[in-house]
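INTERNAL AUDIT FORM
Audit reference: QA-55
Scope: verify that the stored structure record matches its stored sequence.
Auditor: D.O.
Record contents follow.
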Amino acid sequence: MKPAVFSYLCPSTLEETIDMLTEYGDEGKIIAGGQSFVPILNMRMSEPEYLIDIHQLEELRGIRLEGESVKIGALTTQRELEKNTLIMECFPVLKEAVRFIGHVQTRNRGTVGGSLAHADPSAELPLSFLALNAEIIVQSTSDERIADINEFFLTYLTTDMMPDEILTEIQVPLNQPKGYAFEEFSRRHGDFALVSVVCLLSTDEAGKIESVRLALGGIDAVPVLADEAMDFLAGKEPAEKVLEEAAELAIENADPDEDLHASVDYRLHLAKTLTKKAIQKAYNRARGGE
């Protein structure tokens, strides 16, 4: 299929972009790398009257250290995120996650901000930034606000951004646990994930889990932070019984879809298996091993 007819707009500044969003409202849609949105246009799942191409907004590119966080411009490509030395040093889990996104050609065009704004519940970056407790900077004509990532994803392909807002930057706090793991299962490399899991944790001197962030994708309409499992893991070591209980708690309120790729039971089985694997790997890394 081909997209419905639209008017193509190509602003050269952020101010111009926001003015367009304000003027056209729901009839104007932003396109960045196009790796997610072009298929939606072609399938006519979205038929905007105005397509606003923001590839010229250089102020939305780049990765920099500022204060106690790393700031990632929304138009930074996924490949740039994957290869950046600051990201590798501060947030190695992102490097692990990004390599599962499509193929190199996909990552050369796909943007970090585009993935978050698209809000696919099985996508790697929304899940990873949720685990990292990142802050999302959103701008409109009236003001700039910091969106809480724990409340940013509302439902399938839907965020809390208004039609006149644009995602400009992601801020990731530097103080992250030493242990990390990203686990994913898909039918073939580059396919959409059936289930994915991110675990970040730190341990005390006795080897007990001190803090943990555990997030799962593909089991609900949004990426899910497993709060009950996180509370349960605190103060424990990952013995088999502990891992089994944590995995059960992680999927307790899951509501996965059933489709031609996997049944509900199979997705839940994958979620439990990958959760246990991710916790154990993150724990081993926190203790200085693999």
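Auditor finding: record pair retrieved intact. The domain at 63-173 is CATH 3.30.465.10 (Uridine Diphospho-n-acetylenolpyruvylglucosamine Reductase; domain 3).
Action required: none
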